Description:
This protein is an alpha/beta fold. It folds into two domains: 5-142, 3-Layer(aba) Sandwich (Rossmann fold), CATH 3.40.50; 154-274, Rossmann fold (3-Layer(aba) Sandwich). It contains nine helices and ten strands. The protein has helices at 16-29, 57-82, 95-103, 127-135, 163-176, 202-211, 229-239, 254-260, 263-270, and strands at 5-10, 33-38, 86-89, 108-112, 139-142, 154-158, 181-187, 217-221, 244-248, 275-278. The chain has a ten-stranded mixed beta sheet with strand order 3-2-1-4-5-10-9-6-7-8, sandwiched between helices. α4 links the parallel β4 (108-112) and β5 (139-142). α3 crosses α4 (127-135). The protein is globular and about 60 Å long. Residues 3-138, 154-277 form the UspA domain. This is Universal stress protein UspA. It holds the Pfam family Usp. InterPro entries: Universal_stress_UspA, UspA.
Amino acid sequence: MSYKTILVHIDDSRRSGARVDFAVDLALKHNAHLIGLYMVCRNELRPIIKSDESLSLAVHEAQARARLARANDHFLSATRLAAATSEWRAPVGPSVLTATLHARHADLIVLGQADPADPAAFIAEHFADDVVMRCGRPAILLPYAGRVDRFGETVLIAWDGSRAAARAVADALPVLRHARSVQIVTVERHREEDDEAGKNTGHTLAAYLEHHKVRAGVLSMPPASGASTGATLLDVLADTDSDLLVLGAYGHTWLHERFLGGVTRSLLESMTAPVLMSH
């Protein structure tokens, strides 16, 4: 597998420009065509940019067009400067549904973590995770805090033997082949909680990766004491100085993860490095 088409979500948020720059570098590294998908909040009851309420509708629309033009200019400048093949799209329609349909025609999508301090980062409730859940494509989510100075050099794979985790590893192979270091981490389960405990160790996965010219080490973490699996993974991510986490999204049902928490929810809220997710 290789990434021949990469789609990056663009909006009016503070991190959008950095997300574009990241996607341009990634597209160049994989010799991929880059699609810039401009998608902002479509909920008229929740304006993204606060402005003077006395302004007319025409002025508000002119401001929206100006923001779109600025985003387009940055995307075109970044891709032309890098000599990357690209195209710009600014479709209309429901945000999640429209982004999902466009994402299904790409090999990889680049999204941003929701930033609660930036109103312009709000596209729709649970926008990023809904797109990941529905598009059937792997997604790289970038954290809103800090800079992404390294990517894919030191990779941590969260492995539990699940379908989603297997899908994520296969989808990440183009990145794993370029990595300098790959570690597989498993969080041990109590045997009474899982009849398959002990069978889903990372060593079998390491053997699989070896056939793809990817050499990986294996870390086995004991059951978390007072900490969630998501928190444990974040600790290992920091301890190993990894710049990418590969994760199968939504090990439980979507509703369970959304309302009761879970590994995916924890990481989406507290991620400190890029995460490559597949569902």
